[in-house]
Amino acid sequence: MSEASTPAAHPANRRGTARTRLLAAAAKRFYADGVSATGIDAITAEAGVAKMSLYNNFASKADLVMAYLDARHEEWLDLYRRRLAAVSDARSGVLAVFDAYADHADLAYEHGFRGCGLLNAAAELPAGHEGREVVRRHKEDVESLLAGHLGELLSDRPEEVRTVAEHLAFLLEGAMARAGLEGGGTRLRHARTLAAGLLDRL
């Protein structure tokens, strides 16, 4: 097979590779330095691509920010699915949500763990920005996952499911905020212990 006909040389594959590199670079820089403080030049330098490559893949920085938010959501869902694959009951399913957040805190970050990347980005976006809607939906999805597991656990008390799910979601978000300020996952592991105790008392 000639070099010209290899998959890596195909324009569509090169474009896909550039998009992947740009998203990875944006994720690194946005999380470490913030969305507003990160310019296009910093992202293209991190990705090792020309500025035109960014505009060939994204309409604007705003478009890249939206893609970043979607990617962060999918990244967390992947962590959750991995945890969920190892459990066999509803109680463990609830705790898998907490474990996925702890796994997120344990990932390698350039300047250490800074809390939820989605919330950090949302804090920089103005009211009404579509990116804030992405983050809101993510948090609602997490609470719905908790409610789904609790629906199995409390099948004889369905009226309690939403209240307990909200309680656990608040516990999780509070722990995430404290963990981000402290730069580590200790608070998230503590929150998991508290959640386990709550589940045992239901």
The averaged pLDDT comes out at: 92
Order of helices and strands: HHHHHHHHH
Categorize the overall geometry.
elongated
What is the helix tally?
Answer: 9
Tell me the structural class: mainly alpha
Q: Please give the share of residues in helix.
A: over 70%
Major beta sheet summary: none
Rg: 20 Å
Unreliable spans are 1-13
Classify the beta-strand content into a percent band. under 5%
Task: Describe the protein's topology.
Blueprint: H1 11-33, H2 40-47, H3 51-57, H4 61-84, H5 90-106, H6 117-124, H7 130-153, H8 161-182, H9 186-201
Helix pairs in contact: 1-2, 1-3, 4-5, 4-7, 5-7, 5-9, 6-7, 7-8, 8-9
Describe the model.
The protein has helices at 11-33, 40-47, 51-57, 61-84, 90-106, 117-124, 130-153, 161-182, 186-201. With 202 residues, it is mainly alpha-helical. Helix 1 packs across helix 2 (40-47). The radius of gyration is 20 Å and the shape is elongated.
Summarize the structure.
It is built from 9 helices and no strands.
Question: What keywords describe this structure?
Answer:
202 residues; mainly alpha; 74% helix
